[in-house]
Design goal:
The protein has 415 residues and is of the alpha+beta class. The protein has four domains: 117 residues, Endonuclease III, domain 1, CATH 1.10.340; 121 residues, Endonuclease Iii, domain 2 (Orthogonal Bundle); 137 residues, Nucleoside Triphosphate Pyrophosphohydrolase, CATH 3.90.79; 30 residues, no CATH class. It is built from 18 helices and seven strands. The longest helix is centred in the N-terminal third of the chain and has 16 residues.
Length: 415
């Protein structure tokens, strides 16, 4: 991991790199983060460099990584460091939490890894390890349970090398103490793991050492009714029931003029803030195709001054589904061609921030993965399809028996 190979750097640059990596690693796999991290560091190698960037540049760099507010918080944090801390990243977990987007975990990770502060960390991997080692069976989404995990993490952290200890604990959860296939037989801490010790019986004991901290009737124990003998250590941790994901529907218009496309900018607050997208309107799941076309036509005219696109001139090319962590989007995609790009000129006021871009510029803009999927669908719709009727009338002559036996589909493909 490139963010761990930073010992030769000054402490401020090490803190910056760990900070960036920790922000990128939130809800994103390591394999995905590495390429983004390397590109980021090549462009903004120091906190000062990042502080001089624009939000648009950061959004473009972050595009495709998801959870886009993380990039904006990094930019705001870098600007705060330069403005309020004279360019020096705070060296305590308490001060680090004053930076935008830096919560308890990120602050503890930076402070322990870079500044040797003896504080524990709690992430998903650590929760899994500690819940199994201490047989903590209460709901991990509850604040009281999470607070207890932080207490345990602070108690067990190594004071001489807290950064190494915390990273080791996280690695243990990522590689050995995994959610579905834990490697208990080779685990280096199996001798002190209560989940392994009681793998075949429900450890609902009122003398549980964790329950004593709560001074109540075993609030941290796994309820008997939730114990599943067949899964053993995987009874831990317990998670709350999944919240039903909200689904939202949108009609999207891809408007093209001489190989250029209209993009509009999202508001600076909320989901995908400041990102670019194709003109779109929210619709109901029960909306007819005609209603969607009428809504898009009105939006283009009233908000962007794009006239001449009647509902009848919008062609539906398909539907795209894109999942976020807390909601699902369904995009009903339409396309239209116009001959004049002056509608977005300075002389024509509009209610949305918009621009014309080429296909190359579009893909380099700060667009989400969902927008990329929509554009891929559009590009696929442009591919010419072989005219099968015409091919049927063509007499194929060849001395090759192989060609004579070629099916119509193969002929179409070769054509």
């Amino acid at each position: 991991m490139p963010w761990r190979r930073v010992n030769e750097l000054c402490v401020n640059d090490r803190a910056y790199r760990v900070w960036v990596s920790e922000m990128m690693l939130q809800q994103t796999q390591v394999a995905t983060v590495v390429a983004y991290y390397n590109k980021w560091m090549k462009r903004w190698p120091t906190v000062k460099d990042l502080a001089n960037a624009t939000c648009e540049e950061v959004n473009e760099m972050w595009a495709g990584l998801g959870y886009y507010s993380r990039g904006r918080r990094l930019l705001e944090g870098a600007q705060k460091v330069m403005r309020d801390f004279n360019g020096k990243i705070p060296d305590t977990s308490h001060q680090l939490r004053t930076l935008p987007g830096v919560g308890q975990y990120t602050a503890a990770a930076i402070a322990s890894i870079v500044f040797n502060e003896p504080c524990g960390v709690v992430d998903g991997n650590v929760v899994r390890v500690l819940s199994r080692m201490r047989s903590i069976g209460s709901d991990t989404s509850q604040q009281k349970t999470i607070q207890h995990f932080w207490k345990v993490a602070d108690n067990i952290v190594d004071h001489e090398k807290p950064g190494d200890f915390n990273q080791s604990l996280m690695e243990l959860g990522a590689i050995v103490c995994t959610p579905k296939t834990p490697l208990c037989s080779t685990c280096p801490v199996k001798s002190c793991c209560r989940a392994v010790e009681t793998a075949t019986t429900c450890p609902n004991d009122s003398t549980d050492i964790e329950a004593l901290d709560f001074k109540s009737d075993c609030e941290l124990c796994l309820p008997v009714e939730k114990w599943q003998p067949s899964v053993g250590v995987m009874n831990y941790p317990q998670k709350s029931a999944k919240i039903k994901v909200q689904e939202e529907q949108f009609a999207v218009a891809i408007v093209r003029c001489r190989l250029h496309y209209i993009l509009t900018q999202r508001p600076n607050q909320g989901l995908l803030a400041g990102m670019w997208q194709f003109p779109s309107v929210s619709v109901d799941s029960s909306s007819s195709e005609r209603t969607m076309k009428e809504s898009l036509s009105s939006c283009l005219l009233l908000h962007l001054n794009v006239g001449g696109i009647s509902p009848a001139s919008l062609d539906k090319i398909g539907q795209i589904k894109h999942a976020f962590s807390h909601r699902h989007h369904v995009y009903h995609v339409f396309k239209a061609e116009i001959s004049d790009k002056s509608c977005l000129g300075d002389e024509m006021p509009q209610l949305m921030e918009a621009k014309w871009v080429s296909a190359e510029e579009l893909l380099q803009s700060a667009i989400s993965t969902g927008v990329k999927k929509i554009f891929q669908l559009f590009q696929s719709s442009l591919k010419a399809k072989p005219n099968r009727k015409r091919l049927r009338s063509v007499k194929l002559t060849s001395s090759s028996a192989k060609i004579r036996q070629t099916t119509l589909d193969e002929v179409c493909r070769k054509a």
